[in-house]
Structure to design on (155 residues):
């Protein structure tokens, strides 16, 4: 319901699901039909129904310039009503750097901060002074549904 067509969905180069529907939030029970076109040119229609909606977000996202503004610590708080099981991931992007942490299972729901590039996987070791970065805390539930809260940071 209420999906403008055509819409595009797939996986990005890191294997993460991406979609761009620009629609009102779905509700449990909404049904969708998808025309899937394969690389050999064949296609088929598959259907699916919404079985759950994760509508609870991390709160009070903050950045502390410790140990420095260019290697900050990102912090957040749990949502008011978190799911029974959940974890967090961090996404940061800007014109000269990108970082996704962790690559795999989310951090435990008891973790509420992380140092930039703690795992050494960021595309740049230090953020650049004067560049604005978008960063997000992604809350994931046991079914891998996600709720993402974005803010900006400029060192």
């Amino acid at each position: 319901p209420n999906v403008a067509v055509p819409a595009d969905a797939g996986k990005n180069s890191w294997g993460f699901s991406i979609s761009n529907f620009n629609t009102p939030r779905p509700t449990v029970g909404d049904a969708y039909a998808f025309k899937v076109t394969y690389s050999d040119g064949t296609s088929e229609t598959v259907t699916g129904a919404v079985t759950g909606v994760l509508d609870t977000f991390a709160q009070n996202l903050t950045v502390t310039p410790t140990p420095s503004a260019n290697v900050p610590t990102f912090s957040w708080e749990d949502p008011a009503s978190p799911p029974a099981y959940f974890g967090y991931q961090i996404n940061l992007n800007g014109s000269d750097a990108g970082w996704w942490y962790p690559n795999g299972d989310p951090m435990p729901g008891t973790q509420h901060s992380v140092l930039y590039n703690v795992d050494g996987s960021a595309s740049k070791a230090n953020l650049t002074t004067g560049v604005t970065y978008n960063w997000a805390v992604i809350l994931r539930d046991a079914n891998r549904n996600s709720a993402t809260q974005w803010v900006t940071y400029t060192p």
Observations:
- The chain has no helices and twelve strands.
- Residues 140 and 146 are 4 Å apart (CA to CA).
- The mean pLDDT is 87.
- The first strand starts at residue 8 and ends at 11.
